[in-house]
Amino acid sequence: MNTQAPIVIVGTGLSGYSLAREIRKQDKDAPLLLITADDGFSYSKPMLSTGFTKGKAADELAQATAEGMREQLNLQIRTHTSVSGIDPEAHELVLGDERLSYHKLVLAWGADVIRLDIPGSGRDRVFSINDLVDYRAFRDAVEGSRRVAIMGAGLIGCEFANDLRNGGYEVDVIAPSDTVMPGLLPREAAEAVRDGLAAEGVGFHLETHVERIDKSADGVTLSLANGRTLEADIVISAVGLRPRTELARAAGIEVGRGIKVNRYLETSVEDVYALGDCAEVDGHVLLYVLPLMACARALAKTLLGEPTQVSYGTMPVMVKTPCCPTAVCPPPGGAQGAWQVERDGNSVRALFRDADGRTLGFAVTGDYAIEKQALAKEVPPLHA
Length: 384
Ligand code: FAD
Description:
globular; 384 residues; FAD/NAD(P)-binding domain
């Protein structure tokens, strides 16, 4: 191992830059090299589904260029550079024909969007949005359009539906589930969000899916499994994400639903760590900002010689549907208990309680959404 080699972080999303920032809080000079397949702009990904509501174009959502980050944090950054392999024994990364030594390696390379293989001549009008580059392409394409169809009624599909309505677009949402955000929200809270979006004019086509997308005279025609057709100018596919694990698996690193790491963020291979959307941390795959920030704080200490376990606190997720403000803190997987729900129109307070009456999770919508901070104090942290 070359001990003069830098700490190498692959990825300049929130995980990569948050880790670099945390390292710099403690050590101004440790050699740090960030490598990214994209242009290295620093931006807050959650803001991508608020562009129209905030009246901002894609690049106005970015905070700094790679050059700006290089100066701010005293880093080396290689942009438009894809890692194609890892050689853990040699402590080297493979970048096409080049090999690059690392002292410690951090994988912060995110998740891939799931792409459905839908037949038809209109596939080039389908956009997935999981980074600023995707969002720029979408904003260019949607300019001058009127009708947007969204495949998927998860958090991202619902947020884009609300944001595009705020931007004056006609929006249809198509999903196989019978309500929105299944798996994240209990039914009554999901219905409140769906009703709120419907009242804003979002059309819902639930319990069906898109079978074909074909070019039409002035856009595309989506053929649904329920026999209906929909006309749109552009389609967003928001059907889910899959942590990037392939290169890690090929290097002999243990993977599960994500790249498996313990609470020190160590993979199964020496000197290789992972955090963010690509990681499965102590059994949890949480594709949100608060978990990656907690990981970045702990990992910075570990990398600088003070081994530190990540501690996940209570981490509510805010759903950015301003027509029906929503916060959710799902109960941990496998928790025993039941939802207790109060509903007043689109205001829902749902508490997941165990047999002793302890609140293990919650979802609040509408007027009850302001209770999120108080409720978050009641819910025990994931890591006690
Ligand atoms: P990414 O941001 O995906 O970064 C991955 C980086 O790795 C990129 O720089 C990429 O270029 C690089 N990379 C990938 N492969 C390679 C390779 N082979 N070689 C070199 N570089 C590579 N979370 C919340 O908590 N609250 C929210 O309100 C919220 N809203 C969201 C709204 C939207 C529209 C989306 C899409 C997500 C939202 N999330 C939200 C999720 C949150 O934004 C993500 O969990 C987080 O940004 C993930 O950051 P990351 O750095 O792990 O991954």
